[in-house]
Each structure stands twice: as structure tokens, then as C-alpha cells.
Amino acid sequence: MSVAEAHADTSKGCIDIRNTGVTFGSDESEIVAVKEVSINVQPGEFVSLIGPSGCGKSTLLSIVAGFVKPTRGEALLDGKKITKPGSDRGVVFQQYSLFPWLSVRKNVEFGLKMAGVDQNRRNATARSLLDLAGLLSFENHYPDQLSGGMKQRIGIVRALATSPQVLLMDEPFGALDTQTRVVMQEILTNIWQQFRISVLFITHDIEESIFLSDRIYVMTARPGRIKAEIKVPLPRPRTPEMTDTPEFMNLVQELKGLIREESLAAMAPEIKDRGLSGFGMKVGPKGVGELY
Hints:
4-stranded antiparallel beta sheet
């Protein structure tokens, strides 16, 4: 039995966020981050959240992770209310959250060690996952000896090591260069294809959301609401060639239109009204020192 087969439980991993709102601060400093949001992720489904900066995407992910409690509404995992973090949810952040003093294999083993798993089993699981990610030859290296893409691959398999029912990913490839990001998207979809656990994925990248997802939720400017739900009808497994198809490009254009409206709405009125036309100012020969 492969490590992916050992982790598989296709009946679990149902995320259900119901009429959820989040407010930070109080009185004059009160900020409504999310308002009346309802979304779901079915077992084994890959779902992305996309929208303008500050719309509450990461807040929703943090609610599912158990890091943030909603002000109203609720979030459920397999019918049980989420009240705190748990090993049934793996989290991958944009920042490389590896322990620099531990080797690659020890980083992957860490969650299993905290769960009381014996050393032989920890070792076997970590090595199998590293092999799956193409990093077994680096098992005794340390994080500062690795590239950004390698570090994030380790973060992903470490999150998978404890057999979570859900993988929560908050812009995991945001810090990578374009070429590495494209490769990481392909690696992720291949790993997901084997594990088939539920994924809630946060991104600003339209093409990335289409390539990876079964469904995409588009959020409005703050306070974040769900503006649209887009189904991605592309077949699995996903391949780079699909990004050149008319079906893919049509989805890109649809999402660009939806998100541009919200990105403009998220900006200050003077930016929205004047910024696209250069604020009506002219720059003289002396540059910004001579505006008229």
C-alpha cells in the first residue's frame, strides 16, 4: 500500500461555512472583514477562494483552521463545529514555516512525533512523502540549504504527514518566482490527485486558481461576501497544455472581469475615479518636482 492509499478516506473532509461574519475591533475602530459568507468544500474536492486584497480570504481559511472564531455563523468539518486547531486540518502558509535547526526529514516527522508515533513509523512515512515530492535525496539537508520551491514542497508533505482530512493553503506559492510557481502548481495537482483530500486554497492568481481547482469562489471587496461561484469543467489530470485551450482562456476572462470590478471597489474613491487617468496631472521637465 502506498503512502497516499494509507492516507485516503474519501468519505471525510466536508467543510461547511454557514452565514459567517467576522468583525475586528470595536466602536469607532470596528472593521467588518467578512459578512454573511456561506461556502462548502465536498470530500476530496479542490476549491479556491480568490478576490481583491483585504476581502477576507485568509480570515475564512483561519476560521476553518481554528485560528479565528467567527463573530456570527459557524464553520463545520464533517458536521462538527470547528472551535480550535486540530490534526485533521493541515495548513500551508506563504511563508516557509520550517524549523531551521531540524533536517528535512525531521521537519516532516515533527507532527507525527507530537502525535506520539514511534520513530520507525515516523521515519518510513517521512521518507515515503519526501520520495513522492522528489526530495528524498535531500532528507538530511537543512532548510537554509534549499530553494524556495523545495522548502514549500517540504511544507506541503509535512502538512500531509499526519493524515489530515483537509489541506488549507494560504497563498503557498506567492513568494516564488513565476517559473517555479508554475512547476509547483503542477506538482501540487499531481500530489492532490494521489491523496484526493479536500483542499481550500487561497490565491490572487487567476490562472493558478483555474489550473488547480474544481470550483472557485470569487469574493467582493471588504466586507467580503461571495460574489460568484465558478465551476471549472477541465478534465483531470490537469496538464500545462490546458492553459492554452479556449475553455481555459474563457474562464480567465470571466474571472478577470469579476475581480477587476472588486479590486477597483476596494480602492479609495480618488484612486478609482482618477488613478486610471493619471490623476489629471502633467509632469514637467524636472520630473515630480514640477507637477501642474
